[in-house]
Amino acid sequence: MTADIAASIDMLELRNAQIHLRPASDIFTEADGFSALNSESADLPVLECISAKCRAVISLQGAQVLAFCPAAKQELLWLSPLSRFRPGDAIRGGIPVCLPWFGVNRRQADLPKHGLARTQLWSLDDVQQAPDDTISLRLVFRPNSEDLALFPYAFLAELTIELGTELRLSLRLSNEGQELMPLSFAFHSYFSVSDSSVIKLEGIDGREYLDNCQGLSRFVQSDSLVFDREIDRVYEAVGASQTLIDSNRNIEIDGRGCDTVVIWNPGAVLAAKMDDVGQYYCRYICVERGMAFGDELQLAAGGVAEAKMTLSSS
Ligand SMILES: O=P(O)(O)OC[C@H]1O[C@H](O)[C@H](O)[C@@H](O)[C@@H]1O
């Protein structure tokens, strides 16, 4: 299929599957517990994909997966009931894709947090269906002239989202300019949990981390992590996989080319000051995978960085 499919389809019929282009507020309604904020504000276009393997919702703003539920299983991702679906506002939940930098820009702190791509529209330029009925959507983003005024590096971001019984994100970032390009990024996943205070996380024990609640000082993860207050930690050069252990299921987060692990939950005190989190802070844990801090890349002219993350539950 060819470029900008989203602009030309309301509905795409595939084998045992359908993809609908819909306004976010048609899907995340007050009846489903989403706040009235949605209907007051301008809306965002989302793709709802329903197949025999899963249901997923993807926002074209930010190429952000907002929901992913494998057939006969529970939803993996958390989307805040207080989310705003206003063009240009970050959506709280799902999997924001942070690039071409993660968090606060380390060279220029007044640049937008988490990069340029999460609050802008991406183009859907390909839809494929594999023989096993897994659906792949490819979305692309290139900085516009305003972006280039902030970050003067021409690049192309291509995100392939594979929707099967697992969710796989493959990100390819190409430096299309002539200069060495500083690059950090992350898949900033928000996982739906029964209660953050009962969650265990495997795969980071014994690791060194930077504590973002203590000026990025270095510590070693000696005990199990307990989510009983604000947690904001960066583990560099970890890679491999982590497992979120909830009372009734495990979520497996596997990644390649995304070696940094960031763990974040605001806790009650900070959440109370965040108008799109509030009392719901205990319903999610962020386990983010990317290349940031000590894993930041310097991409040569014409160079390419690739990262894959696969999420599954059992
Ligand atoms: O509020 P946001 O810009 O979406 O950022 C949400 C969070 O993202 C990451 O996890 C950072 O480590 C946190 O410091 C930050 O608070």
TrEMBL record:
It catalyses: alpha-D-glucose 6-phosphate = beta-D-glucose 6-phosphate. It is an enzyme of class 5 (isomerase). GO terms for molecular function: isomerase activity. Its EC number is 5.1.3.15. Keywords: Isomerase. InterPro entries: Aldose_1/G6P_1-epimerase, G6P_1-epimerase, Gal_mutarotase_sf_dom, GH-type_carb-bd. Coiled coil: none annotated. The keyword Isomerase applies. The keyword Isomerase applies. Belongs to the glucose-6-phosphate 1-epimerase family. This is Putative glucose-6-phosphate 1-epimerase. It comes from Zhongshania arctica.
